[in-house]
Amino acid sequence: MTQHPIIPGYHPDPSICRVGEDYYLAHSSFEYSPGVPLFHSRDLISWTQLGNILDRPEHLDVRTGVAGASGGIYAPTLRHHDGRFWMITTNIHEVAHGHILVHADAPTGPWSEPVRVAGLIGIDPDIAWDDEGTCFVTWSDVMRGGISQAVIDPLTGQVLSEPRSLWAGTGGAHAEGPHLIRRGEWWYLLVAEGGTGPGHMVTIARSPDIDGPFEPAPSNPILTHRSTSAAVQSTGHSDLVELADGSWALVFLATRPRGTFPRWHTNGRETFLAGVDWVDGWPVIDEARYDVPPATSAFVDEFDGEALHPRWISPGVSPSSFAHPGADGLRLARGRDPLTTSAERLLAVRAEDELWSARVRATGDVALSVRIDDAHQVLVERIDAEVRVRVVIGPLSDVVARAAAPADAVLEIRATEFEAERGARRGPDLLRAGYASAEGFVELASIDGRYLSTEVAGGFTGRVIGVEALGEGVVVRRFAYEGGLPA
Asked: Is this model's pTM higher than 0.85 or not?
């Protein structure tokens, strides 16, 4: 059964396409900029981030603060048709203005100016073409309920037909995440149901015509871990791809909850892989087909290039507006005031491991943080010659520890195993915050990781680890992330 994600960390709602021997994956990005991370692979196991599709700030309405959390960009669909890559998605802040549709001749871009597909109110749009070249958008319809469809002009976004209802699913909550897949004489409509939580599942229906009517599979749901003790839970929101050798695979989102009841997941919804067999014209999911090892996630960034690596993101604002790499390191414009907790110019990366450590070496007044949102975070703040640990849980914000330290102290946060007596209540992990000294890690505070979990914070994202300038003249010389614990 599935154990390890192919794209770890908060990378939900995967959409996949193949061009020859190359595979491409796109994901939701919500309030973070740049939007829609894009990955490439040749074997479906090892993936490299190529960039972000919505990488121009003027094309991305994302917002700071708790009110902006889990807003922004919802589930995309990525397809290749007639020599072009296409991506369609929804910005929930602009849902009334229509879905966002862009295209490019190469996956690395440049991506076109976005057009709006107006009037099709909902989320999770899919794009597909029939044999005559007619383009169909299929989406989760918040007005009619269930899955709906309309014909569009993909270059202008103009809607060319009246919307029609396709399928309401099998009765599970929130029929969403539709994808239309052609195989032989059949069109398959892949859908997520049950809500993106413990009841999540993948269902499917088919029709000889792209516009239905659709007949549900007799074995629905074709994938779910609901009511099981599997380590991986909330399996759903999937996409199918035909491999170069004619076999098939499924990518889907899932979580890795930990701790005692009711268990907590911290890194958001991640992307997993399964094999597919076709039996009597229906897909049968084989979760054991691929041996996916733990991803190699460690990296060190000294910010000495001309541009940031595409892994770097920021809530509610483009990193390019305040983070400037160069030969001397990364210059950060001043962010929040030290007395406030709402990030203004936070440069962050997704946490990708269950256990990890992160260190930042910088000059000036600076903070290193791990967070779900502004209301759920742990921060190590260095101001002058003092290092302090701040914990924010909902409306509560308190400095729980402080110590004198060198003005150049390396700030560090570790996510470690939650050690407790057998039978005792146990969170998903412990977040240990402090700084590095010549003698090793100096821990100032330890916090139960469940307070930085989706089950507590809510929303659709996961933990990110970030750095923010608390004063003028901050230069980051080195950021190091390591899965597991440092030696």
From this structure: yes
